[in-house]
């Protein structure tokens, strides 16, 4: 499902080259749940962004469901994200002046579906995430936990094969964190491949996690 071969990523900051990832190789099988364990700044978010095609590696190869996403032009990688990948961002990246329903529909707008189909899909995932009653409320009127559920629902609207979650419990209390984990477990049971970047110890002793991989200073600890 996800193949990463000898991937490195560097950024230029002023006159300095910052090495975010160094020679990373990783294989995630279809339907697996893999936790990327590491502190802030370890390279977890960069790795997720490479898998999603949001950036390209400085060297190496990233394949998602058989396609080498690391060499796709942006419009093709964007199409692949819409078709196969759901991304749960740490800071949600919701549009404050839109309603919860409108935010959830946004990933599918480029697909030119009818408004009726978009609303139907969005309402179905809102029901799944327990926020159907908040459909018409603007994002800036929702609590942090409700906004996280909207972000999760948005990641599910394209019925993805893969969910990438970047520090998904960072802004949640313990109760909401356990609710999120229960949602992720249900997705795993449906065959969705999960890759979760976190330093939250709640994820380190879960029965449905297949691999825990530690990353430190841009390198995998083996």
Automatic annotation (TrEMBL):
The keyword Cell cycle applies. Its EC number is 3.6.3.-. PROSITE patterns: ABC_TRANSPORTER_1, ABC_TRANSPORTER_2. It holds the Pfam family ABC_tran. One of its GO terms (molecular function) is ATP hydrolysis activity. CDD domains: ABC_MJ0796_LolCDE_FtsE. GO terms for biological process: cell division. Residues 2-222 form the ABC transporter domain. The keyword Lipid metabolism does not apply. Keywords: ATP-binding, Cell cycle, Cell division, Hydrolase, Nucleotide-binding, Transport. GO terms for cellular component: plasma membrane. This is Cell division transporter, ATP-binding protein FtsE. It comes from Sulfurospirillum diekertiae.
